[in-house]
Amino acid sequence: MFIDIVIPKGNEEQFIQIAKELGTEKLLFLYNEKPKEIKGHFSGQIVTKNPGHKAIFFSKGSRGLVENRNVKFHYGFEELEKKDSLHHRRSGMNQVISKLMSEREKTMIIDFEKYLQGPKEIYIGRLHQNLKLAKKYGFQIAIASFATKPQNLRAANELKHLIKSLGYHDLAKKSVQTLSQALEE
Q: pTM of the entire structure?
């Protein structure tokens, strides 16, 4: 089962309608403040500091929150640094964060909306670096559209093909199922 992540602005019903047309069974609505309850779907919250209680929390690529036991899902590592170094990629991940992600059973989520918005060659290079680290250290990878508008939603196969195009066929198949397995626990 594929669960997609969206960031609504009061247009939850439009997201649900388009998701059904694309074959997405459930959505996870992500909010900056306290999440709303939507029947038949999940809700989560984006955090920037230590949350005190348990819920579905997402952090935007921060080592401090990778170490936090309440935050299981992390995204946006690729956009932490503005420019790459002359000698290496600044993909937001390194061996220390990768090892922490693996040991603490965290999940890195690939943000497809950022791929659509920014310079693709930089994002693809950084994503490739992070996928290489994921394969080496064995932490979970998921992919989601992170759509802010209903028309930006994508089907699971479209999202999976981004990872396949980088040569990670084994990670691509798992990436569309990882989120549903983690949320069902």
A: 0.83
